Amino acid sequence: MSTDSVIAGVDDRDVFRSIFAAYPDALLLVDPGGTIILANPAADELLGYPPGAMKGLPVDELVPDAIRPNHAAFRSAYNTQPRPRPMGLNMNLVAKRRDGSEVMVEIALSPLGGASAPLVVAAIRGVGAYPRVKQALKRAHLADSLAQFGRLAVDARDPHLLIGQAAPAVLDALRVDTALILVLEANGVELRIAGGAGLFAPNRIGDRVPNDAGSVCGHVIARGEPVLIDDFAHQSRFELLAPGHGAKSGCVLAVPLSDRGRTIGALSVRSEATGQFGEDELRFLESMSSLLATVLQRAQSEDALSHAQRLESIGQLTGGVAHDFNNLLTVISGNLQVLEEVPACADDPMARQLIASAFRATSRGAELTGKLLAFSRRQMLQPTPVDTGALLRSLTELLRRTLDQRIGIALDADASWCMADAGQLESALLNIAINARDAMPAGGALTFACRAIDRLPDDDGSGLDATDGAGYVAISITDSGCGMPDSVKERAFEPFFTTKEPGRGTGLGLSTVYGFAKQSKGAVNIASVQGQGTTVTLFLPRVEAEAPAEAANDAHGDSASSALLRPGLRVLAVEDDAEVRTVLQTHLAAMDCHVVAVATAEQALDIVASDTPFDLLFTDVALGTGMRGTELAEKTRQLRPTLAVLLTSGFSRELLDPSPAWELLRKPYTRAELMRAAARALASVQ
Question: How far is CA 659 from CA 425, 438, 547, 622, in A?
């Protein structure tokens, strides 16, 4: 029988119904009034409805509440001029599922019939299933989860409470079934379950269990190295997952908790599914372990430390975490930059949006690291012209997302530039804003203002010449809180003075603001009336400046900076982290450099001694247990005095003791930042 005769014997309506039902994308048939007439099985599955349940629903039910008014206006306009609208347009679209959750989608519209308001077929595709999207979203999710827990670590006053929050945070970030924090007891033969989440019965938090060398965690503690098992049921290396982990199935990932090179415990996770863990999960867990190890150290020594010593312990936390955290961010941002240049992603608007979202997450992580270092006073001031209006706009947007939603935030900023360390200035303003938040427990108003002034107020007490230079920029933060009595206002800038209950306030917030203002050749004052709110004003030297030329370039590109380096530049790169080294090689190759990359300073020094020609030595400062990058640079300069040196570190410059005169590139860095830093290093020896 011929194909034509088969087709002739089939009802067209049956064919169209079969196509509608079998189509892999979600399909909805909607009438001019916005009522769903038909929905195919793919639509039921994507949007979480039982078969037939969407029939008769208004299509607005599938639109998130926040954007429903805009959708109604769009649908009305579409009905007046219906036309085919393909998928893949540069729009960020979200659909609401039956359970209230949201799914990112692409939508195509096709009118049926020639009437002015015809039936419309809506084809809906969930873009979260794309492999490249999944990867970008996962990395952004892990970076954001780490940043959120880092913020908790900064604000936490009770280390034990923070440890209790760590396992649920890991459980949520990695979407696993069990997360355990095990700490080695002093006797060395027992482990204490310091934290846990998920299925780990019959044990409870606080229980002590044997430190069994035949278990995954026992091995991690004994060897001080991570363990990853894709399918525990099909391995013979270990007898137990970990005491307290329960079922011996699924996949397992465990990393050591270390304190000054000594393993003090383990952080382990288990998923009942197999093959769930890779390098991204390992890096995330190692960074969480770094945070937790220092928090545990703080908890164990807190009773013996004075108030100032506890602050120093927090400083050690930030310094220890910064390097690992910034290495993680360097890998994520570097791979995202490579992904951004892949043609398939460059031509896909949704992929570009997701990559941009992931870049924003890494930026937030980098900002968090800078704030941790600023909090511990481990950063040297690096004054530069700062656009105070732009900084305040960025800061107020951050605070709108993080402060109590009952606090309204307003901004009134002139276009003024001041001379200050931008990171320390932001930290000082955050300290003031947090104090203001605490003064408004039931909510209120928080107003940021910025204006240029010619002289300091007569009663500022700064001791500065109010008529010297180009004047000042006054940045004020006003709250509608409880205000201060005169007795409190007079002591507000004293170190360790606080009106908060024990365990909540360090008494260093406003004193560090005062120190920053003085060091910046400015001043700070407080105006407050009890019951009527408080205004804290920072006065910083004013400068005439414009945005740096490189700001016009793409934040992740190399349009102008590529001209700074000549093709064929010979670079000796030293980086102990394998993934960061791969990202670095990719960046340098894209800059037309000839690269020799090694993991240790000792390897690099052997290469330098062999008379192999190089133009630039680019080295991390912290290189594991061997020679530091600064020592390598010193010895290299003795052998080759004209060789340019560029250092990189996740720590601050102040921690490079003694602080060298060489160029320092802070992690995480983009390709454009690497180019500019390399060019400056090369220029310094010419």
Answer: 22, 38, 29, 14
pLDDT value of residue 333: 79
CA 503, distance to chain mean position in Å, is 28
Please tell me the predicted confidence (pLDDT) of residue 616.
92
Q: Cβ-count burial of 253 within 10 angstroms (0-12 exposed, 13-18 middle, 19+ buried)?
A: buried
Closest C-alpha to 674, from 595, 576, 577, 578: 595
* Global pTM value: 0.38
Residue ranges in the chain whose pLDDT is less than 50: 1-3, 5-7, 303-315, 374-378, 459-467, 496, 502-504, 506-507, 547-563, 654-655, 657-659
Rounded distance, CA 338 to CA 138, Å?
A: 16
At position 566, the amino acid (one-letter code) is R
Six token digits for residue 608: 């330098």
pLDDT value, residue 539: 93
The CATH architecture that domain 136-358 belongs to is 2-Layer Sandwich (3.30)
- What are the sequence ranges of the domains in the chain? 11-129, 136-358, 381-543, 554-683
Q: Which residues, listed in sequence order, are joined to residue 30 by a DSSP beta bridge?
A: 36, 120
Pick from 354, 277, 332: nearest CA to 104: 354
- Can you count the helices (H) and strands (E) in the chain? 19, 23
pLDDT tens digits, 173-214: 898 888 999 888 867 788 888 888 886 667 788 888 888 888
Q: How far apart are CA 421 and CA 540, in angstroms?
A: 11
136-358 and 381-543, same CATH topology: no
Distance, CA of 31 to CA of 37 (rounded, Å) = 7
Q: What is the pLDDT of residues 134-183, one digit of tens each?
A: 677 778 788 888 888 877 776 666 767 778 888 899 998 898 888 999 88
Q: For the chain, give percent helix, strand, coil, nearest 5.
A: 45, 20, 35
Residues whose CB falls within 8 Å of the CB of residue 588, separated by 6 or more in sequence, listed in order: 571, 573, 595, 674
The domain 11-129 is placed in CATH, from the list 3.40.47.10, 1.10.490.10, 3.40.630.30, 3.30.450.20, at: 3.30.450.20
User: Are the C-beta atoms of 667 and 329 separated by less than 8 Å?
Assistant: yes
Task: Enter the tokens of residue 264.
Answer: 């003090």
Q: Is the dihedral of CA 266, 272, 274, 276 positive or negative?
A: negative
User: What is the domain class of 554-683 according to CATH?
Assistant: alpha beta
H/E segment holding residue 256: strand 251-259
Half-sphere CA count of 496, side-chain side, radius 13 A? 6
Q: How far apart are CA 384 and CA 382, in angstroms?
A: 6
Q: Does domain 381-543 have CATH number 3.40.50.11810?
A: no
